[in-house]
Predict the 3D structure of the following.
Amino acid sequence: MAKKAARKTKSKIVTAAWKLFYNQGYEDTTIEEIIAESATSKGSFYHYFEGKDALLSSLSYMFDEKYEELSETLTDEWNSYDVLLYLNHELFQMIENTVDFDLLCRLFSTQLTTRGERHLMDNNRVYYKLLRKIISQGREKGELTNRMTANEIVKYYALCERGMMYDWCLSNGSYSLSEYCKNFMPYLLGKIKLE
């Protein structure tokens, strides 16, 4: 129960922070505003985060929350290949609509230069666990290739997503990420689909 409450508190802080970052910018958001928006305490904030910069890596936490939310909408009747396309499209739509573009660029930048944890690559994230489950089930049902292991397919899928987000950042968000992925992701994932 304590673990669930702690997770809820951290989630409230992260959600409030990213809402403020999106609405008023990272530089113009203070820790005090994040605490007030999240209805938590200064002690709680500093229990989970060393400072505002530490929240940059929490974007992957927001992605995981979106995946948890989406996982509840999935049914066994869906083909695993279509589920992967659905998850990709929904995540990219969320990124376009709720994540400040400059912060996404900053996240990629920090992940490239950090000597510590690379949250985007953490195999214990909800993201990777959900992908492994979907892909393993897809291979068992004969929907996805057995020429690659489930872990290889997960790595390939994550690489495709990161590549598209990185390209979008390099292009200064000049096109719709979610619309682009609708056309491009089926092509990239065509290798893993069994006809």
User: Anything to note?
Assistant: The mean pLDDT is 86. The chain has two domains: 1-49, 54-189. Residues 1-49 form a domain with the Arc Repressor Mutant, subunit A fold (CATH 1.10.10).
